[in-house]
Amino acid sequence: MSNGRKNLYSGIFFILFSAFLFIESFNIKMSTADALGPQFFPRLVAFLMLVLALILIFLSVKNWNQAKAEEAAMPAEKRKITFNFPLVASIVLLLAYFLVLQHLGFMISTAVYLFCQMFLLLPQGSFKKPRYLVIVTLVSVGLSVFIYYLFLLAFSIFLPAGILG
Amino acid sequence: MDLMNGFLDIFQPSILWLLLAGTAVGILFGAIPGLSAFTCMAIMLPLTFSMEPLQGICFLLAIYVGGCSGGLISAILLGIPGTPSSIATCFDGYPMAQKGQARRALGTGVVFSFVGGTISAIVLVFLAPIIAQFALKFSPYEYFTVILFALTTVASLSEGSIVKGLLSCLLGISFAFVGIDKLSAYTRYTMGVHDLANGFNLVPLLIGVFAVSQILENAASRKYAKASEKSGPSQKDLMKTEKVKGFGLSWKEFFYQMRNAIPCGAIGLVIGILPGIGGNVSNLMAYAYCKNRSKTPEKFGTGFIDGIVASETANNATVGGALIVLLTLGIPGDNATAMMLAGFQLHGIAPGPLLFRTNAEMIYAIFAAFLFANLAMLIIEFFGLPVFIKMLSVPGSYLLPAVIAFCFVGSFCANNRVFDIFVMILFGLIGFIMKRFGFPLAPLVVGFILAPMLEENLRRSLMRTEGSLIPILQSPIAVVFLLLTLVTVILTIRKELKNYRQSKAQAAAA
User: Fold this and answer.
1) Are residues A113 and A157 in the same domain?
2) Residues A53, A109 within the same domain
3) Which residue, A79, A95, A114, sits at the end of a domain?
4) Residues spanned by the domain of A71
5) How many domains does chain A have?
6) Which of B82, B88, B87, B107 is nearest to B30 (CA)?
7) Chain A 45-104, CB below 8 Å of chain B: which residues?
8) Is A143 found in the same domain as A124?
């Protein structure tokens, strides 16, 4: 994506977001404690956001030709949003971590998370090499156990124990 | 005298040990490219839970000091800045190392990091109480204008255009709306989600925006990464090629370099005071300043010692500047000071002018700790060099996930809620997307932190004046800050228009 296109999209996002801020502000209970009340500030922010978003869109449309040229000069792979497996997998992994943490406990969830995340960061194909497999397994299991007991014993902080607890 | 008491407060084994340890890990994280003082503070934050307030804050401060300096090690030996605050150190440090003067370059960098840190510490000790005294007299509307000024500076000085900076700042402010409104005690923007009633917690937000977004970025860029290792003489060989005594710098050279160090220290200090920029910019500005002023500007970039002096003095002086604003006004300027603020909050302490009155002892202990951490940095960085160099070879693919594992703990511990891990992931995504779309992240965070103060002060002052804005315009302090705000915006727009025209002219010429 060129910068112009990025600005256009983010401008549209911010318009929608400011609309959301404004509409939601009607759900705030009225208070007479002060002259402005709790709704004033959110509405002010929504208004400023709208103005700035419009400026952003205006600028990006004005320079559209330049953006087109910039886009044409880019390599094909960068021009379009392509499916980026390591990125999507990392996001899914993080969300999964959040969902299972309470059930499986800190040690198991973290060990599994670290194992997967490291392979997502290592160069492609590392999974098939036994050397990496050993290092990653040792590091991810060792680190999770170490952190859990470090906080438990040294700082008396209880991390979720899950099924091990 | 107060400072002497401060030194007495920190001269107990537990604090001294924490200062030394904090500086050492700070240097280590600073030296590893991709990790910074902020990452290190995020990891170490949960460790401060069980500490005394002063211990915890000294520990975080030491990490900050070490992290700001550690970047010079990889900048000189690898030619890759360990942190953005040592970019300019690469320019002359790496060529020096290539010429077989690695030790001399490292020694100079370490010494002048210490000089920069100490200059800023001295200014901090003398200036901060004066500013705090002054700020104590601020009425709510004067405080409102100060915060407004800080927010616009962050938005306009961060990288990217001012429109994007302001939008990022407004987004941060909107996130701060979530939760209970302090003045009316009604909840806002919780959408009926019970976990949101207390708003977003600062710690998971910070960790998400700066650390989780980083891991997503690394994962996303694996596709384009090349497997080739950097070739060239190994770091060990670079170190062996010369024999030097001490820091590799004679006293004569040291005093001669002071004419570079003192103005660069001043540059670093001023940049540190301005919210939103910090060490990333100060080292480059100081480098450019010394190059312009030098009689032999052509030597810069070829392994010239003045370049290292400029960059390293400035980036460490920035720390003191940033601390001035944080301690006296409670305004954090960048991610590392935001983390310091989170450290204060964890212990129920709010930095600001009041702290100077209610807990002056602690303030002077922090000053003393800052001076001591600089000294510790000088010693540890010099003698611990072989260890730090060895750690540089641990690949980032293992380190980053390990960092995140600690971040999970940090987010969880802040409130003992699993929900905060979700907050961290959510803000990781937000940070990642914003970076991709060219939005600066510092205004988001500073906006989030300052929004409650901004709103509260405005509403309180309008309560006092019964809704009239006129008393605000009658206060000279408020007017000065309003004018400064306006000038910042106008100057930034003018600069951007100029850049825009230039780029257009270049495009037309090409």
Assistant:
1) yes
2) no
3) A79
4) 3-79
5) 2
6) B82
7) 45, 48-49, 52-53, 55-56, 59, 66, 84, 86-87, 89-91, 94-95, 97-98, 101-102
8) yes
pLDDT score recorded for residue B220: 85
Position A91 pLDDT exceeds 70: yes
pLDDT computed for residue B412 by the predictor? 87
Final residue of a domain: which of A54, A79, A104? Answer: A79
Instruction: Kindly write down the DSSP assignment for every residue of B313-362, as one continuous string.
Output: HHHHHHHHHHHHHHHHH----SHHHHHHHHHHHHTT---SHHHHHH-HHH
Residues 6+ apart with CB under 8 A from B81: B33, B71, B74, B75, B87, B89, B90
A90 and A158 part of one domain: yes
A35·B225 Cβ contact <8 A: no
Q: Do A12 and A60 fall within a single domain?
A: yes
What is the pLDDT, as a whole number, of residue B411? 86
- Among A24, A90, A102, select the one facing B189 at the smallest CB separation: A24
**Residues of chain B neighbouring A10 (CB-CB closer than 8 A):** 164, 167, 437, 439
* Average pLDDT along chain B: 85
A-to-B residue pairs, Cβ atoms closer than 8 angstroms: 176
With a CB-CB cutoff of 8 Å, which residues 97-136 of chain A face chain B? 97-98, 101-102, 106, 110, 113-114, 117-118, 120-124, 135-136
Residue B161's beta-bridge partner residues? none
Highest mean pLDDT among A52-56, B133-137, B401-405, B415-419: A52-56
Q: Cβ contact (<8 Å) for B408 and A97?
A: yes
Are A94 and A50 contained in the same domain? no
- pLDDT range class, residue B230, cuts 50, 70, 90: very low
How many CA atoms lie within 13 Å of B497's alpha carbon, on the beta-carbon side?
6
* Complex ipTM: 0.90
Residue A25: list chain B partners with CB under 8 A. Answer: 188
Q: Which of B135, B132, B134, B124 is nearest to B369 (CA)?
A: B124
**What residues pair up with B188 in beta bridges, in sequence order?**
B179
| Chain A residues near residue B428 by CB distance under 8 angstroms | 94
Instruction: Judge whether residue A129 has pLDDT over 90.
Output: no
Select from A38, A40, A101 the Cβ nearest to the Cβ of B186: A38
Q: Is B254 strand, coil or helix?
A: helix
Q: Do A147 and A90 lie in a common domain?
A: yes
Whether A48 and A104 map to the same domain: the answer is no
Predicted local distance difference test score (pLDDT) of residue B413: 82
At B232 the pLDDT is 44
Cβ neighbours of A110 in B, within 8 Å: 405, 408
Tens-digit pLDDT profile for residues B390-434? 777 777 677 788 888 888 888 888 778 888 999 999 999 999 999
Q: State the Cα–Cα distance between residues B329 and B147, nearest whole angstrom.
A: 9
- Closest in A45, A95, A117 to B173, CB measured: A45
Q: Does the pLDDT of residue A92 top 50, yes or no?
A: yes
Break chain B into its structural domains and give their ranges. 2-222+232-509
Look at B46 and A93; give whichever has higher pLDDT.
A93
